[in-house]
Amino acid sequence: MTESNGAPRGAGGGSMPDWEKRFRAPRVSLPDWAEDAPDRSLFVSNATGTYELYAWDRATGEQRRATDRPNGTTDGVLSPDGEWIWWFSDKDGDEFGVWLRQPFGGGEDVPAVDGLEASYPAGLAIGRDGSTAVVGRSTDEDGTTIHVVRGGGAPQEIYRHRESAGVGDLSHDGTLIAIEHTEHGDAMHSALRVVRPDGTTVAELDDTKGGSQELGLEVLGFAPVDGDTRLLVGHQRRGRWEPMVWDVASGEETDLALDLPGDVSAEWYPDGSALLVAHSFEARSDLWRYEFGSGAPTRVETPPGSVSGATARPDGSVEYLWSSAAEPSVVRSTSGGVVLDPPGLKAPVSVPVEDVWVEGPGGRIHALVQKPAGATGPLPTVFEVHGGPTWHDSDSFAAGPAAWVDHGYAVVRVNYRGSTGYGREWTDALKHRVGLIELEDVSAVREWAVSSGLADPDRLVLAGGSWGGYLTLLGVGTQPDVWAVGLAAVPVADYVTAYHDEMEALKALDRTLFGGTPEEVPDRFASSSPLTYVDEVKAPVYISAGVNDPRCPIRQIDNYVDRLVARGATHEVYRYDAGHGSLVVEERIKQVRLELDFAARHLS
User: Fold this and answer.
1) What is the pLDDT of residues 85-118, one digit of tens each?
2) pLDDT in tens, 453-511
3) What's the whole-number mean pLDDT along residues 535-544?
4) How far apart are CA 77 and CA 36, in angstroms?
5) Which of 51, 321, 388, 425 makes the best surface tag, with the fewest CB within 10 Å?
6) Cβ contacts of 199-202, under 8 Å, gap ≥ 24
7) What whole-number distance in Å separates Cα of residue 594 and Cα of residue 491?
8) Cα-atom radius of gyration of the chain, to the nearest Å?
């Protein structure tokens, strides 16, 4: 066994390589803005080397770092009146903590809500008066509770259930609260309940009842008009995510029936007259404007690639965060120009992504391929498996894959069954044979990569973080003769122990995926757990883990590593003081450096 110290061979000296510049270059998120004070904004940036929250006064141009913690901060909300920044304070990335708040212009951080103990967050909505808030909490003991706080008074509990739930939104006038819940026991498909601030129910919407299909709903937001009882809702009634308008007072549902392939979401324009529609299809995304009454969306012009966030401003312009696999992310506006352009080092470009479609056991599989410019195969190839699992790889900029390309590797990213953006059936395919289904799709794409001449069959790397790390360990155990190296970041390694140690919301998801607890369906957990196959692993394995991780806890990783040690298997482990990944740029660079070095040593 080797415990990595963060100083691999060849790490020092010389000028900074492009891959490292991409991590160090200042990045910003899409700015959030205060509904009643739109010149006041909040965004996340790594400008100081750690991802933190920044306050931005657009009227004066002043930008101020609002948080400053060793392990970073990204969860923050600006109150609608623009007076307060609420931010979630956990301990070193463990995601268990309390909401604090500070004045927009700077000042002392104080507890945002007196009387609520530390918990995992389960949604937050702040009233326009700045003193009313709806706070969702989750703990192992209580399940989910939701509380209303008024004017600094004691929090009033209005909701409690063992299954996972969360705050959806607070109406513009503060009289209605939308809650997403999974009381029916299916954590992948929420139902909706609208209540008054005293907790009394106004309306219910549940697409999981009746019929044989499992359909979910999501809250997209109340209309931004006082007295307007319309709620924008995402639904899956036609096999994909689409928006509709639900009047919670009358019960009327208005189907928008947008003629766009793929998944569709939306948010209100600030005056409530139209919707900003976000459309995702086959790993790309774009924006549209939907006018009520016209019934036809009009295109909001954005460059080809991916829009990872967008918001409509009061003047009718749209700000959006855009990137492509080749070009780094930037916040643009339809009014022209770049909204936020942080000074300092600029991230070098990478290479474009190529689309590949492969026939698989569950249907056509979409994969994204990058390789060094001008390179011809067969190449050492990294299969970078995304996390989630309900997520997808897209034509967007990612410093990690670009680093592998810089070092001469081809990178293949597979949108396996379970990925979003390819319809409800594709996403919901992960049931009971968890992990094994995804690996069937990865295997089909791997066979294509080898037979096409792209990938060298003797130099195949399986890599990923979170769910991708889980699939990596499961893959090197169930397919031991295929992979030359396995690189698993913050993985599930021992599924039974992971279930018992993880945060409550993930327990609910696992019960949905497996059809019960480890005690109720032990065979399913065993067949999907990397620990079951650890003695079959032949490839050298590198594992990185955050010691405070509540999603893929450290004890279950240690169990897996102990088994590798017992049989003298080639492996290295790197533990770091954070949670489910790091918000510190130097730490991220260190981890990529360690992975590059490990792969180079074991592929030579």
Assistant:
1) 999 999 999 999 999 999 999 999 999 999 999 9
2) 999 999 999 999 999 999 999 999 999 999 999 999 999 999 999 999 999 999 999 99
3) 98
4) 14
5) 425
6) 199/156, 199/157, 199/158, 199/159, 202/176, 202/248, 202/249
7) 17
8) 24
Alpha-carbon gap, residue 295 to 83, rounded angstroms:
38
Helix axes 436-451, 467-478, angle to 10 degrees: 70
Count Cβ atoms below 10 Å from residue 141 Cβ, excluding itself: 6
Does the structure show a pLDDT above 50 at 8? no
Tokens encoding 199: 């907790």
Q: Give the pair of three-digit tokens for residue 432.
A: 């009971």
pTM for the model: 0.95
Beta bridge partners of 232: 221, 245
Q: Among all chains, which residue has been given the structure tokens 């102990």? A: 562
Of the chain, the end-to-end C-alpha distance in Å amounts to 20
pLDDT tens profile 251-277: 999 999 898 999 999 999 999 999 999
Q: 576: closest CA among 560, 556, 600, 554?
A: 554
Strand, helix or coil at 230?
Answer: strand
For the CA atoms of 133, 146, 550, 417, what is the dihedral angle to 10 degrees?
-100
CB 578 within 8 A of CB 546: yes
Determine how β-strand 363-370 pairs with β-strand 410-415: antiparallel
Average pLDDT, the chain: 95
CA angle 357, 360, 362 (to 5 degrees): 120
Find the angle CA(127)-CA(158)-CA(180) to the nearest 5 degrees. Answer: 75
Identify each DSSP E strand in 35-172 by its residue range: 37-45, 52-57, 62-65, 76-78, 84-89, 98-103, 110-111, 120-126, 132-139, 143-150, 156-161, 165-170
Q: Within 10 Å of residue 290's Cβ, how many Cβ atoms?
A: 20
HSE-CB of 561 using CA atoms within 13 angstroms? 20
Inform me whether the pLDDT recorded for 192 exceeds 70: yes
| Backbone φ and ψ of 277, nearest 5° | -100, 125
Count of C-beta atoms within a 10 Å radius of residue 206: 16
pLDDT band at 208 (very low <50, low <70, confident <90, very high): confident
Nearest 5°: CA angle at 403, between 601 and 486?
45
Asked if residues 216 and 168 have their Cβ atoms less than 8 Å apart, the reply is no
Count other Cβ atoms within 10 Å, centred on residue 565.
Answer: 12
Distance (Å, rounded) from C-alpha 77 to C-alpha 101? 9
Closest CA to 470 of 513, 509, 440, 438: 438
- At position 83, the amino acid (one-letter code) is E
| Two tokens, residue 160 | 């409690």
List the one residue out of 599, 589, 410, 594 whose CA is nearest residue 46: 589
pLDDT in tens, 314-369: 999 999 999 999 999 999 999 999 999 888 899 999 999 999 999 999 999 999 99
pLDDT for res 2: 43
How far is CA 485 from each of CA 118, 466, 558, rounded to the nearest angstrom?
40, 17, 20
Among 592, 411, 364, 362, which Cα is nearest to 487's? 592
Within 10 Å of residue 76's Cβ, how many Cβ atoms? 24
- Residue written as token pair 């110290």: 5
Q: Looking at residues 126-146, what average pLDDT do you find?
A: 94
Instruction: Please determine, for residue 12, whether its predicted confidence score (pLDDT) is greater than 50.
Output: no
pLDDT tier, 377 (very low <50, low <70, confident <90, very high otherwise): confident
Total number of residues shown for the chain: 604
Distance of alpha carbon 483 from alpha carbon 462, whole angstroms? 7
> Which band of pLDDT confidence, cut at 50, 70 and 90, is reported for residue 212?
low
